[in-house]
């Protein structure tokens, strides 16, 4: 039933695409990537990777009575040499494809097809239907339901760990432009039974409830908060708080705090639960916290200076990351450039696989430049990592990224990327990419805007 529903919804979305040509407004975006690389590592057979991947996005607005629209985004991949990702020489997926109808009152809308739901603590991909509307006295409500979108199966399990059906929604109250609070929940049908006995008590169904808050007493201050509870484990999965203050016209300061309980947060992830004990701590009861602050100052119309600090705390260790960046943007954004420095200072036991003599501390230096004109565009990005202690005999790692492209027409661009890296795992790593991008907006009966 799940496969039949998914195929029906995908067909429904594809059937609506020809309407884009007759829409009052619409857009077409297509990107084709041809990537080439050589995978050569000690003890592993050498491979030549040459995957060709195409992305296609279509939007058609003002259909039918002008309130209906169609939206589509999908991708496909074909390996022209060795297999690059899985056992399939070719692969593809529908990211989203849905019809949307906007009603004339109460900010109401309805969707049908494959789409993403982002409402408060909810972040789901669904094959089904959804609706939302404002209610009197500042209230609002939204709801969705349908089939889950299954991902690639986890090796050795024959499943991705998801149930077949999912539904949920959110109720909110908003007071002017100053305050909004919401309550939301997600209920997924029973997760499949996994054969691995080690997953007992570590993996289960995806069922979460939570609340979110936005508060802005004045235009220069905004506070956001969220928290979610896993109803299967009975524990708080995560909570986060973000405060943004603009004390001066050109100065923005932020502070944040996040807390995660691994077992409650990843309880419905079969992949995480199946990790070896040395990676997941076996009982999945680790707690992770981040506390950070940043400041951004617009020096003038060209230069912006930022500084940031973040403290990470886990049951197995802690770390600090701090640094700054200077960005420069010339008039008309024809040239953007900048440089940054950050330092990550961590304890030895902060690593995923702790060792007595390891150190995850390193300096990060970066410089980049991007230029875009009517005829061509180019970019260069250099990142250097300097380790506090040698890793496999190496003191540093280097990454170089370069890109050069040409606007063949106002709607068609051809570009190429080349990257080089040197790190403890690979002495030399060279990758390349060719990209063809087509983007067009339509008005009226298919006329180009």
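-> sequence recovered:
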């Amino acid at each position: 039933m799940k496969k039949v529903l998914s195929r029906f919804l995908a067909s429904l979305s594809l059937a609506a695409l020809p309407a884009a040509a007759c829409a009052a407004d619409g857009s077409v975006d297509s990107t084709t990537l041809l990537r080439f690389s050589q995978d050569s590592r000690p003890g592993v057979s050498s491979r030549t990777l040459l995957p060709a991947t195409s992305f296609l996005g279509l939007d058609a607005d003002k259909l039918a009575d002008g309130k209906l629209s169609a939206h589509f985004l999908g991708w496909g991949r074909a390996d022209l040499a060795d297999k690059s990702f899985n056992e399939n020489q070719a692969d593809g997926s529908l990211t989203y494809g849905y019809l949307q109808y906007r009603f004339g009152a109460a900010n109401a809308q309805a969707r049908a097809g494959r789409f993403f739901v982002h409402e408060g603590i909810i972040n789901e991909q669904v094959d089904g239907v959804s609706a939302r509307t404002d209610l009197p006295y500042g209230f609002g409500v939204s709801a969705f339901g349908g089939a889950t979108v299954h991902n690639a199966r986890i090796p050795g399990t024959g499943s991705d760990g998801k149930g077949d059906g999912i539904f949920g929604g959110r109720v909110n109250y908003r007071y002017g432009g100053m305050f909004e609070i919401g309550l939301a929940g997600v209920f997924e049908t029973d997760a499949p039974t996994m054969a691995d006995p080690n997953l007992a008590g570590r993996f289960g169904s995806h069922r979460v409830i939570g609340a979110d808050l936005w508060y802005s007493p004045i235009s220069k201050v905004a506070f956001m908060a969220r928290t979610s509870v896993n109803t299967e484990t009975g524990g708080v999965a995560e909570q986060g708080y973000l405060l943004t203050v603009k004390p001066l016209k050109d100065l923005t300061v932020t502070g944040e705090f996040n807390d995660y309980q691994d077992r409650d947060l990843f309880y419905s992830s079969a992949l995480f639960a199946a990790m070896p004990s040395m990676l997941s701590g076996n009982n999945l009861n680790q707690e992770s916290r981040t506390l950070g602050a940043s400041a951004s100052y617009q020096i003038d119309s060209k230069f912006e200076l930022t500084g940031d600090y973040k403290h990470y705390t886990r049951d197995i260790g802690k770390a600090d990351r701090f640094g700054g960046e200077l960005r420069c943007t010339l008039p008309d954004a024809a040239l953007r450039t900048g440089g940054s420095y950050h330092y990550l200072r961590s304890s030895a036991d902060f690593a995923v696989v702790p060792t007595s003599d390891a150190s995850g501390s390193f300096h990060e230096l970066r410089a980049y430049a991007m230029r875009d004109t009517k005829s061509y565009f180019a970019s260069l990005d250099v990142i250097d990592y300097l380790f506090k202690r040698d890793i496999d005999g190496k003191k540093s790692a280097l990454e170089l990224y370069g890109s050069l492209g040409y606007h063949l027409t106002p709607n068609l661009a051809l570009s190429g990327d080349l990257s080089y890296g040197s790190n403890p795992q690979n002495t030399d790593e060279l990758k390349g990419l060719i990209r063809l991008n087509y983007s067009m907006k339509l008005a009226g009966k298919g006329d180009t805007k």
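Confidence is low (pLDDT under 50) at residues 1-17.
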